[in-house]
Amino acid sequence: MHIFCSGIGGIGLSAYASLQKAAGHMVAGSDRSDSALLQSLREQGIEIVLTQDGSGIPADCDLLVYSEAIPVDAPERKLARERGIRSISYFQGLGEISKDFFVIAVCGTHGKSSTTAMAARVLIAAGRDPSVVVGTKVRELDGKNFRKGRSDLFLLEACEYRKSFHALSPDIVLMTNVDGDHFDAFKDMEEYHKAFADFLNILPKDGVVITHGQDADAKKIAAESGRTFIDADAFPLPQLSTPGEHMKQNARLVLALAEVLEIPQSEAIKSLSGFAGTWRRMEVKGERDGITIVDDYAHHPKEIRATLAAMREAYPKRRIVCVFQPHTHDRTLKLYDDFLVSFKDADVVIVPAIYDARHDIETATVDVPRFVKDIAKGSDTEVMEGHTLPETEKMLRGTILKSGDVLVCMGAGDVTKLAEKMMG
What we know:
alpha/beta; 6-stranded mixed β-sheet; Rossmann fold
């Protein structure tokens, strides 16, 4: 087939494009800005255009696969409809290429990428040779976000946004938690939980659900599915080469998976002990002028708390400076009170502007000066407004950072670029 991927620079769709190219299809795609992921795709022979006006779609295109970030009225999707080109979402595409495999799906509000990466490490070390799609770049996958294996196992990260994971055909599900997110797509927690319940009901009758028995909501959803339930909390907390209690909890799910797949626990524990994290998950970029620079994807209150607690564990006597870029106005407003108390382990917090990833559907906006004051009160720490990332960089380089500090650049948006710049 000739496949065109709209929004090919997305962490999921780029992996799909790579797998389809490796399978022998002609693949091209578009995105709005260049990135290291796009350069990797070019090196695989995938043609990329940095415009999304429809001009990049080849005349003989058989299939258009679009990222969830591409709205229905986007030029490329409109042109595909006009030309009668079959169009599917990234997750529909992932569902199609994985349906004939034995699928291990990792879902949950947070922890999906790290858990998937850990599972990949254990499966590869055990010689199970899985295909993998994960929402981050992984050392164990040679710094990539995909792997084309030769066995019937397909390990993938399953996102709940807009019920995307319902397009998959899982045989085993690892469910990290169901704490609630994406309330631009779900009206309330009940609807959010139902999306997970419906996902588990896609499992075959002899399918397996692995989750934390001490998590009441996750356990309830798992039990009501009627599928075999494995309690990850019955397994030990393994030692890893990355800090954080939350990482060890994720690793428990992988130990339970190893048990189900009859991989010896001793082998799984040994493999997990070498797990040193992934791209943008407490990723230490390096040191500059005595300052340790860390890049992290956390954008949900529980993720923020877990990351900063892990940083405090790793650097107990050092000052932690956190630049937090809120991701979408909608998430910030709907989880507002939870955000306020999430920064207690940081010594200084800087909040630049909101990363407006859903500008086509969001209407309400966050009062950032008020948000800054409310975090200072709720987390009992020093908080200041950064206005923009360039202004935040000037503040950091000017009077804020000192030798011995740990700088954590945190968020799901382009705050990652700040971490790169601070290394220069």
